[in-house]
Amino acid sequence: MQTQQSGVQYSRWDDSSRDEVHVAAVSSTEEASSWARISRKLCSGKLGIALKVLGGVALFWAVFILGYVTGYYVHKCK
Length: 78
Hints:
The chain crosses the membrane at residues 49-74. InterPro entries: SMIM1. It comes from Panthera leo (Lion). Pfam families: DUF4731. The chain is an alpha+beta fold. The chain has one domain (4-74). 56% of the residues lie in helices and 23% in strands. It has 2 helices and 2 strands; from the N terminus they run ββαα. It has helices at 30-43, 45-74; strands at residues 4-12, 19-27. Strands 1-2 form a two-stranded antiparallel sheet. The longest helix has 30 residues, at 45-74. The protein is elongated and about 70 Å long. 0% of the residues are buried.
């Protein structure tokens, strides 16, 4: 069993009212850090927004096609 440590780093800016908190999970394997890096890159920023929009459009069309095919067979004339 691998141990996993978590650390919280808190820093307060003196010139502003914004607080900054960093939470990091430290694992003994490199796989976890590479997965976190890939996840962070794909889920944030412009690339993350683009992937979410494309996923939403793909989900819309999948549900639309499924509904169309289902409706065709349900309402087909005999």
